[in-house]
């Protein structure tokens, strides 16, 4: 029988590896399933100079290596496998890899990030790997003294275009807006404008990638006039954003309109014990630092969830039990809690008693359905089954 992980993390990018550091550190049996290589999109970024503490001269790979080493140091296992099928409602949760291996886990963090969006135009699929690329860092060096076209005009596309000028003799940027209508960081725009190798192709929409056995050009259309022409090039970089990797979850996980996973502030999804972290979730800012932060929040929430599951299992083995939730430092705390205990015993007879701090037991209170507006509450259980809740 397969071993059961406390915490299984799907994806070894910044979010997944940061979660693994915290999972391992909390002594949870933690594993990361990574389909390709550790570091995710960060590892494909040539310069990554805005992660606090890592300044100029840092590459994405530097950070990715450090994240992975750190996760391993704390005992997390990194497994090279692609999660293909999931049963997240089962107990334990079941994840099947492309290798055919089944992984069982008590809690899961989804940190599978996103993939580059495709243009979906003729020629794109045919020339992928033969002149069509989605990663300037990975493929830029193949275009020494050649001409390339960058399709896309957001921050990532412009940063990539500037990077490509290290190799290419000319970099043409295809922009659908009219001149001046760029929506990108002004410093990135300035850098691109100042670069003599960069040529802007304004008001142009890519219609087809053409060539014989390798890319020779892109057919562009002016949306205002409908006029078309072929712009020659040796390579095309498609940099029009990304889509979250959520296909494998079908409709079991709640998604936003843009297809990202909806979580609460603890990274909890709509399924108990399942969390989402990083670029795959609906959020305001998708960066390495926010992905890592999501990962550590998710791992901490998963740790608390697992602790609560063992508390609930322990409660099931107990006969009649009175738990009083209280705030020990509140005014009249002792009087209120004693009155609650007396009321419970008067109604249900003598039983074992335990006091638990309201401020530390939020998850147990929620699990037992205690009103969150009532800091003091008595809960009577029989073999883990709720008999009654009494409030002051
Ligand atoms: C061109 C570019 C430049 C960027 N520059 C910066 C920058 O300068 N600074 C910055 O802070 N951020 C930058 N970012 C954003 C940053 O890279 C992301 O926000 C960050 O990598 C997100 O981390 P993540 O762990 O959520 O996802 P990802 O980095 O996407 O990692 C997800 C991981 O999950 C794996 N995976 C996917 N599906 C599966 C599966 N089914 N089974 C197992 N594994 C799976 C993938 O292989 C990948 O390794 C840039 C992004 C791009 C594309």
Backbone structural class: alpha/beta
Approximate helicity band: 25-40%
What's the number of helices? 10
Radius of gyration: 27 Å
Shape descriptor: elongated
What proportion strand? 25-35%
**Average pLDDT metric:** 94
Counted beta strands? 21
Largest sheet: 7 strands, mixed
What is the multimeric organization of the chains shown? Answer: single chain
Terminus-to-terminus distance:
49 Å
Ions, cofactors and other bound molecules:
flavin-adenine dinucleotide
Q: What low-confidence regions span 5 or more consecutive residues with pLDDT below 50?
A: none
How are the SSEs placed, and which strands pair?
Elements: E1 4-10, H1 14-25, E2 30-34, H2 40-43, H3 60-73, E3 77-80, E4 83-87, E5 93-97, E6 102-110, E7 114-116, H4 124-127, E8 132-133, H5 136-139, E9 147-151, H6 155-164, E10 170-174, H7 186-193, E11 198-201, E12 205-211, E13 215-221, E14 228-232, E15 235-238, E16 242-244, E17 274-276, H8 288-316, E18 321-326, H9 333-348, E19 352-357, H10 362-367, E20 377-382, E21 385-390
Parallel strand pairs: 1-2, 1-6, 2-3, 6-17, 8-15, 9-10, 9-15, 10-11, 18-19
Antiparallel strand pairs: 4-5, 5-6, 7-16, 12-13, 13-14, 18-20, 20-21
